[in-house]
Amino acid sequence: ETGVTQSPTHLIKTRGQQVTLRCSSQSGHNTVSWYQQALGQGPQFIFQYYREEENGRGNFPPRFSGLQFPNYSSELNVNALELDDSALYLCASSFQGARMNTEAFFGQGTRLTVV
Amino acid sequence: AQSVTQLGSHVSVSEGALVLLRCNYSSSVPPYLFWYVQYPNQGLQLLLKYTSAATLVKGINGFEAEFKKSETSFHLTKPSAHMSDAAEYFCAVSKGAGGSYIPTFGRGTSLIVHP
Questions:
Q1: A88 in Cβ contact with A101 (< 8 Å)
Q2: Segment B36-86, tens digit of pLDDT
Q3: How close, in Å, is residue A33 to chain B by CA atoms?
Q4: B45 and chain A: CB distance < 8 Å anywhere?
Q5: How big is the A-B interface in CB pairs under 8 Å?
């Protein structure tokens, strides 16, 4: 078990609505990354949070936003949902330090369907 | 910029046969390389990683991969396939030491194992 938990596991939303996905990182990790995985594709990097600040962003529009909390858990918010936002959203946590970085440990994902 | 190319969206083998999944990378800096496995409706599980130590890396479930800088490759192998190996496999690359851990994933290779 990786220790990274995501909620909810499945979600159905209507086009134009807003959605919030949640992620609890593994104990001891300080970095959370979010990925979008469309059907039949590899995960695409959305953004990363390190110590509550955005630390990198992929090619996603501003309606994709996030937060990281003091306990290193994180939220992904998507506004004005579009049909193409239907995907598996994966959260990954890792540790970044002055002398070492760990690999990412992934949660089970949230399956978002936009209708 | 970094990227990986996975050759073959599907690979089909018989149970007991050699598994070979191909991955070529592109990176402007010394990379870290990873193989992840994804079972249906699951998150990603790390199989193995290369972080500039030994070029032959052994992972879980009998898998191994060899980093070949001259060929910019990091192919995944297993001597004898089991039915339980049927899954989606992703190769990923990130910046090496000192870089933020933000792996870039390939499109994935679906491994099919026939009895």
A1: no
A2: 999 987 889 999 999 877 899 999 999 999 999 999 999 999 999 999 999
A3: 8
A4: yes
A5: 57
Question: Which residue, chain included where needed, has tokens 């306990």?
Answer: A71
Question: Could you tell me the two tokens for B58?
Answer: 């052994």
Q: Which residues of A touch B107 (CB under 8 A)?
A: 41-42
| CA B82/CA B113 separation, integer angstroms | 7
How crowded is residue B77: how many other Cβ atoms within 10 Å of its Cβ?
14
What does chain B look like in DSSP terms, one character per residue? --EEEEE-SEEEEETTS-EEEEEEEE-SS-EEEEEEEE-TT--EEEEEEE-SS-SEEE-GGG-EEEEEGGGTEEEEEESS--GGG-EEEEEEEEE-TTS---PEE---EEEEEE-
